[in-house]
Amino acid sequence: MHYLHATLTETLRLYPAVPVDGRCADADDVLPDGLHIRKGDGVYYISYAMGRMPYIWGNDAEDFRPERWLKDGIFHPESPFKFIAFHAGPRICLGKDFAYRQMKILAMALLHFFRFKLSDDTKEVTYRTMFTLHMDEGLQVRAVPRRGLVEV
């Protein structure tokens, strides 16, 4: 299950469910780079872009490579301040482990019973960045039952 966990994590690195997030300063503060912020200022970060930054993830940052999360076949997480799909620090997502469990169960069930094919593999998939990441016009796929497992 380590490779599945790495695959889901790599997917979230490149396509985080919440691509833009921010906080409001509740007191005057200084960010690590020296920028002064005042109480009430909004501080936003774009996790969609951060997951593709070469200085964070290396020269292959835009490549889908689940192996980046594995060492000798075992999943090794990065700091939540680097992989921010579930946020970090005192506000890290309490449902992170539950979310991974749900994703794994659903992925195993779907992949066990079906093969998936794009309805139109010539159409480019595009995204709309909103509070949550949406596929523009959805992703049209055909689920084909695997032979011997499901009656056709």
UniProtKB/TrEMBL annotation:
Pfam families: p450. GO terms for biological process: lipid metabolic process. The keyword Transcription does not apply. InterPro entries: Cyt_P450 (IPR001128), Cyt_P450_CS (IPR017972), Cyt_P450_E_grp-IV (IPR002403), Cyt_P450_sf (IPR036396). It comes from the Eukaryota. Keywords: Heme, Iron, Metal-binding, Monooxygenase, Oxidoreductase. Heme binds at C93. The keyword Heme applies. This is Cytochrome P450.
